[in-house]
Specification:
Elements (H helix, E strand, L loop, with lengths): L6 H25 L4 H27 L4 H13 L4 H33 L18 H4 L2 H14 L3 H33 L1
Helix pairs in contact: 1-2, 1-7, 2-4, 4-6, 4-7
Length: 191
């Protein structure tokens, strides 16, 4: 068995990740008023979680796909070749994935909040970003979980929802633009 390394896909994924982190961090910085460092932390955590979950779901579901679809996906990943069958599936998969990723990013914000003791974007808890508080030292594990679920409900606040949504729109739009450019360049190379 030969090891095939899809180098163009890996390079594209890294490029897309960098662009998505930069665009979402800018939105967090401007809309939620986060510091640059904190907005990059949130954006990087969200994007890496989404990336890992996406590839995990892909590899878990790959064996359940029909053989023709597997061959089309292999051609796409290894050679960047789109098939008409994949274009048909895109109309169904893209909207579903868009909203799943949006929800996953909201959960990632809450996990980051739990781990780093930051308030969620848009939630005004009266805790300054630079203040060192001892609130986490007094919380038990049960209290932390309760805080996590309470904060997850707070993410439904208007500013938090708007910040995550527009950050996701920005990164997805820029990503779609990069995919379009990549597809055009690949088509020109084959012509």
């Amino acid at each position: 068995m030969h090891l095939i390394l899809p180098l163009p896909t890996i390079i594209f994924q890294i490029l897309f990740l960098m662009i998505a982190i930069a665009s979402e961090a800018t939105v967090f910085n401007r809309l939620a008023g986060m510091s640059q460092r904190r907005s990059v932390e949130y954006a990087a955590t969200m994007e890496l979680l989404v990336l890992c979950m996406g590839w995990t779901c892909f590899f878990l579901s790959y064996d359940f796909l029909p053989a023709a679809m597997q061959a089309d996906l292999q051609a796409l990943i290894l050679q960047g070749v789109w098939s008409s069958e994949l274009n048909n599936w895109l109309l169904v998969v893209v909207p579903v994935v868009f909203f799943l990723v949006l929800e996953l990013k909201a959960i990632a914000v809450q996990i980051l909040d739990l781990l780093l003791k930051y308030p969620a974007p848009g939630s005004d808890l009266g805790i300054s970003e630079g203040a060192d508080t001892d609130r986490s030292l007094t919380l038990t594990t049960r209290g932390r979980l309760q805080t996590f679920f309470q904060r997850y409900q707070e993410i439904q606040g208007e500013l938090a929802k708007k910040t995550i949504f527009w950050g996701h729109i920005a990164s997805t739009g820029i990503g779609a633009l990069v995919i379009a450019i990549q597809t055009i360049l690949f088509a020109m190379r084959q012509a």
